[in-house]
Amino acid sequence: MLIDKISQIELELTTKCNASCPQCVRNYFGSYTWPTLPIVDMDINWFKETIPTEIWQQLEHIKFCGTYGDPCMHKDLLDIIAWIKHNSSSSITINTNGGIRSKSWWRKLAGLLDPNRDKVFFGIDGLEDTNHLHRIGVNYHKVIENLTTFNHAGGNSIWSYLIFEHNQHQIEQARQLSSDLGCGNFVCKKTSRFVNKTHELIEQTPVLDNAGQTIYFIRPATLPKYQNKGYEDFKLITKRYKGYQNYLKNTEIDCKAKRQHYIYISAEGDVFPCGFLSDRMYGYESENHSDHKTIMNIIESIGGRSKINLHHTSLKDIVYGDWFKAIERSWSDNSIQRCAHMCGKESTLLSYANTELYSVWSGDTFEKDNK
Questions:
Q1: Angle between the 322-329 and 290-301 helix axes, to the nearest 10 degrees?
Q2: Does residue 368 belong to any structural domain of this protein?
Q3: Dihedrals φ, ψ of 41, to 5°?
Q4: What's the pTM value of the predicted model, to 2 decimals?
Q5: Please, what are the averages of pLDDT over each run of 10 residues along the chain (371 residues)?
Q6: Is residue 370 a part of any domain in this protein?
Q7: Which residue from 63, 160, 174, 256 puts its CA 20 to 30 A from 139's CA?
Q8: Per the structure, how many domains does the chain have?
Q9: Within-domain flag for 247
């Protein structure tokens, strides 16, 4: 990774979220927030001062999505976007569940963004009777009100629909509704999250209450046209390599972040090549996987967390330093399974998940099956 080639940055402004999606690492299967997760906001003044001016000037794309939080939860998001617009010609995308803020806030957001270049992805996974089954804690009527307000104010919205068994029958109805409400596009995502954070194929995800009791299950689509074909490839790979772990140990890695000149900055100020590695830091499944220990050992070996954090180390020194070098060296023996699972040469779950999503982009933009 060359710092003068960085063209895309994903900024996780906050680890706060109004939702408790059961397949998100920030909570325990839809119940309580995972206790080791720091609840933090990126400071706006620090944000302005930390990333060098030349980086802002060369950026082509800035994405507000994140691994643990919803960017619209950050109190200064509007000010941050206004500052970026003054200091960079980059396009902007925002991924959100859309269930927070006032109508006036959404009007202001629309006024700041360029409808020809900037996009807001509203993650709405169904209609009134189904969206809350995955977007737990999100008020559907509030989302529709915010989406409509944003559109009427001139914003460019994308209705992003994660397909499950419980909402597959509503896709065309939702697609028509998105058009009626003035959305710029409607995209389906054939979720890849039925391979869990420990890289095991699962048939369903439990949804738990705060007492740890299962209240229902989230299951993948059953209709063939809405199924992610990558699951079949996963099974074939597992058979061909005599176990998926053998595939992870032996596949060649083609790092999308490196190829697409992309970096990820967490709300705490940590710099990663991508958000897929950031999600190894916190969460029930993540912390119980060998990748967590491997990554923490790498961080310790290079001098500790401060060496990957912009509060203590410059972006240039992080990107050119031991942290990024150690991650790339790990590809020689695939000691970080997350890299092999996401960017292995035969891994297809991600590409099949986001086929429609890619179609709304011009150019090769780094995306992930997240918000």
A1: 140
A2: no
A3: -115, 145
A4: 0.94
A5: 84 97 96 97 92 92 94 98 96 98 98 97 98 98 98 98 98 98 96 90 95 96 95 95 96 94 96 95 95 97 97 95 96 96 93 72 44 41
A6: no
A7: 63
A8: 1
A9: yes
